[in-house]
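Design a sequence for this backbone.
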């Protein structure tokens, strides 16, 4: 004889066996726990939450990419597909280009429901000067001195790559100020990953020359080999 019972919002099966007119019930309950996470993609949220295994956890990610003009502020929420890593940083590229990134992790019923409010980036100069340049589709750019502000105290080189079905391989190369030594971090909604490497600040007497990144060359070579 079979019967079903409901436990922890999951329907599970029990089987009863009969032996010598004595009913001996035995049941098996899987130990897989689950809860729901708010699901949003690019600021578009689903009315129905997403069911996740407790081992996954929920993530809440917001970014602000501000080229000159209208800023882009995508926010994504859902179940973590792998181990969730909380991370927060900002970067200034120069000529009005800024990037703010925050990723939060949590475990619990719709714990990622609330929207993230990004803190404004300070405009107060902190005395650090970095060589800054931006190239959206190539390996070459000429850096200009960038006066760092607020908590942005590290000069770094950031390399990013992304791929879409209708889009050719493209690379972002920039130097600005942010956290150091971040590798293979997914950003900006589309499959875009960044690698960040520390660089030395510049002095007033430093001569700035065009930058061709050896790391970027390696990425391009890897793409050709694949």
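Sequence:
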């Amino acid at each position: 004889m079979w019967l079903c019972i409901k436990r922890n919002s999951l329907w599970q099966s029990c089987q009863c066996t009969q032996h010598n007119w004595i009913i001996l019930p035995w049941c098996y309950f899987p130990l897989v726990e689950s809860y729901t996470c708010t699901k949003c993609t690019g600021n578009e949220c689903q009315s129905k939450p997403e069911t996740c295994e407790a081992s996954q956890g929920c993530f809440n990610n917001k970014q602000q990419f501000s080229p000159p003009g209208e800023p882009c502020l995508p926010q994504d929420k859902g179940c973590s597909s792998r181990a969730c890593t909380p991370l927060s940083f900002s970067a200034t590229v120069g000529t009005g280009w800024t990037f703010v990134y925050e990723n939060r992790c949590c475990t619990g019923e719709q714990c990622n429901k609330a929207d993230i409010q990004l803190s404004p980036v300070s405009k107060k100069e902190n005395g650090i000067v970095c060589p800054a340049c931006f190239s959206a589709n190539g390996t070459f750019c000429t850096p200009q001195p960038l006066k760092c502000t607020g908590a942005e105290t590290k000069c770094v080189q950031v390399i990013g790559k992304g791929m879409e079905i209708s889009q050719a391989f493209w690379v972002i190369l920039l130097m600005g100020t942010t956290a150091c030594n971040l590798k293979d971090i997914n950003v900006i909604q589309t499959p875009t990953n960044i690698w960040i490497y520390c660089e030395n600040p510049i002095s007033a007497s430093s001569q700035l020359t065009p930058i061709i990144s050896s790391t970027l060359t390696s990425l391009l070579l890897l793409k050709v080999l694949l």
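Residues 1-31 form one domain.
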